[in-house]
Write a structure and sequence with these properties.
Elements: E1 2-6, H1 10-19, E2 25-30, E3 42-45, H2 51-60, E4 63-66, H3 73-82, E5 84-85, H4 89-95, H5 98-107, E6 115-118, H6 121-131, E7 135-139, E8 149-152, H7 158-165, E9 170-174, E10 180-188, E11 194-196, E12 200-205, E13 208-214, H8 221-234, E14 239-248, E15 251-258, H9 268-271, H10 276-284, E16 297-304, H11 310-314, E17 319-323, E18 333-341, H12 344-361
Parallel strand pairs: 1-2, 1-4, 2-3, 4-5
Antiparallel strand pairs: 6-9, 7-8, 7-9, 10-11, 10-12, 10-14, 12-13, 13-16, 14-15, 16-18, 17-18
Helix pairs in contact: 1-10, 2-3, 3-4
The structure holds adenosine monophosphate.
Length: about 375
């Protein structure tokens, strides 16, 4: 069985690493010559729009999936006329435009912050009367890790925030005074079976995920499962999906979803019975899904922009280091480490140590 993946970054790499024990082979399409998954399978190097390469990928792979959502819609459609593609082009189309995504959430009863589309500076001034301050202005498409976003504190911020967007279609949303950010990750296979991971509690700084911790018996688990079930069912979704949520006064408000494996689920490699990467493969191959139960306590810390000495990380007990093989660059995720412990106290102590090591090299 050969799995084709659009993109050959660290997510594709971790999918492939999970697939080897299952006897799977991989073929990647990615424009970068040094894409970090390319040592784990065949690498078709070229543009995502290159129809000849896409046709090759479709022909040589039994099933195609992707590691990011900003795949041009016509590419997913083209591939799906040639081979099986999971998740579906529809899931991509919804996830890659924040306005369509928020409309979709509301259509299936998933709460969102108040929001409005913004196509001009005049629009922005007009809608702020309803949205109120503070608010966040975001590009509708292509935004990730907080890119293309500005926080609006007052009317004085509107002109400069709009200029920064350089004319792209945008959305403005009310700033959510959240007490926590959490995400739920679930997998749905071709038979429609669904499994849910325990909620991840996430810490972002500057719009980038820094730390994720697996929760135990979280009070919000049930509501999050209800939301993600609606999403998976409405999209007739196959694969792993991550839903990012804000918690405010014991309710959950959706931020966005990712139609793929997700950074906040990296702890599942060592911290769950079956990792999100293996369950993604099981789901798209029509196999039974594996148990998502947590094994001990687990938390993950991202290394962004640079790496401390490996030995400093590996000296910590219960730590598992994942280097992505990427050149360090400002704001770039180059590795993560997961710590697994028996007690919450040990987890807190070791996570803090890992986070301090990560902070030392973080230039973002
Ligand atoms: P996003 O790219 O939309 O996931 O945003 C990145 C991060 O910015 C989120 O994880 C939050 O920490 C923060 N953020 C985004 N939108 C909002 C909002 N409406 N209210 C409060 N914080 C936000």
């Amino acid at each position: 069985m050969k799995v084709g993946i659009l993109g050959a970054g660290q997510l594709a790499r971790m999918i492939a690493l999970a697939g080897y024990p299952l006897g799977l082979e991989f073929i990647f399409l990615d424009p970068a010559a040094d894409a970090c998954a390319n040592r784990l399978g065949e690498h078709l190097q070229g543009d995502y729009h290159d129809l000849a390469l896409l046709a090759q990928l479709a022909e040589r792979a039994d099933v195609v999936t992707y590691e990011f959502e900003n795949v041009p819609a016509n590419v997913a459609d083209f591939l799906s006329t040639h081979t099986q593609v999971h998740p579906s082009p529809k899931a991509l189309a919804v996830a890659q435009d924040r306005l369509i995504e928020k409309n979709f959430f509301n259509g299936i009863g998933i709460a969102t912050p108040a929001y409005a589309p913004v196509d001009s500076l005049a629009d922005l001034h007009a809608v702020m009367a309803d949205i109120g301050y503070p608010a966040v202005l975001k590009s509708r498409t292509q935004g990730y890790d907080g890119k293309g976003q500005s926080v609006l504190q007052s009317a004085a911020d509107l002109d400069s925030a709009w200029q920064k967007l350089a004319g792209v279609a945008a959305i403005v949303e009310a700033f959510v005074p959240f007490t926590r950010e959490v995400s739920i990750i679930a997998a749905r296979n071709t038979a429609g079976d669904i499994v849910y991971y325990p909620l991840s509690e996430n810490l972002h700084q500057g719009g980038i995920l820094r730390v994720s911790e697996c929760t135990t018996d979280d009070a919000m688990q049930e509501q999050a499962q209800t939301y993600i079930t609606r999403l998976l069912t409405a999209l007739d979704y196959v694969g792993v999906l991550a839903l990012e949520l804000f918690e405010v006064e014991r309710t959950l408000i959706a931020n966005e979803f990712a139609p793929r494996v997700h950074n906040s689920g990296h702890w599942t490699i060592e911290g769950a019975q079956t990792s999100q990467f293996e369950n993604h493969l099981r789901a798209i191959l029509g196999l039974p899904l594996g148990s998502t139960a947590a094994v001990d306590k687990a938390a993950m810390v991202n290394f962004i922009g640079g790496l401390p000495d490996n030995a400093d990380i590996l000296a910590l007990p219960g730590v598992h280091l994942h280097l992505y093989g990427k050149e360090p660059r400002t704001g770039r995720k180059v590795a993560h480490a997961t710590v697994r412990t028996e007690t919450s106290a040990e987890l807190a102590e070791l996570t803090e140590k890992l986070a301090s090591l990560a902070n030392l090299v973080d230039d973002s």
